[in-house]
Amino acid sequence: MKPFKTYLDEDQTAQYIFAYGTLRRHQRNYYEFDLDKKLTYIYTAVLRGYKMYDLGGYPCIVETGNNNDKVVGDLFKVKDQSAVEAVRKLELNAGYIEKEIEMNDYKVITFIYEKVPENPVLIPSGSWKEK
Questions:
Q1: Using CA atoms, how far apart are residues 85 and 65, in angstroms rounded to an integer?
Q2: pTM attached to this predicted model
Q3: Of 126, 115, 123, nearest to 56 (Cα)?
């Protein structure tokens, strides 16, 4: 049995977001966009097959396909659709693309870079909070 499946099964039409940087709980954009009121924290999750890079004041992730690479982030259930629109606007304007991923058999949206940025600073832990 997969963890949290019962909780996630409550509403199959719900939308989920995986946040790994400044949108994670207790990070600056989490409060800036009122995500504490618009999203429900599910749990801290690990996304395999991605590497995280420090872009200065915020990170990006890039798909590698290597299961040894990982990114740590928070999985949220959307309570207020305006949160998705605000996050989408922020991320797309910063050069990210929206990607639907599978996490514990559920479709989740996150935002990634298509390729490694110039002069990348790898975050080996894969966690923005532990960089």
A1: 28
A2: 0.89
A3: 123
How many degrees, rounded to 5, is the angle at CA 28 between CA 34 and CA 64? 105
Q: Give me 67's structure tokens.
A: 């299961």
Q: In sequence order, which residues have a C-beta less than 8 Å from that of residue 119 and are 6 or more positions away?
A: none
What digits encode the pLDDT tens for the residues 48-83? 999 999 999 999 999 999 999 999 999 999 999 999
Which tokens belong to 2? 């997969």
pLDDT for position 52: 98
Q: How far apart are CA 13 and CA 34, in angstroms?
A: 23
Q: State the burial class of residue 124 (Cβ atoms within 10 Å of its Cβ: 0-12, 13-18, 19+).
A: exposed
Q: Looking at the chain, which runs of residues are DSSP E strands? A: 16-19, 39-48, 50-54, 59-63, 70-78, 97-103, 106-112, 121-122
Q: How many other CB atoms are there within 10 angstroms of residue 33's CB atom?
A: 19
Domains and CATH numbers, the chain: 13-125 (3.10.490.10)
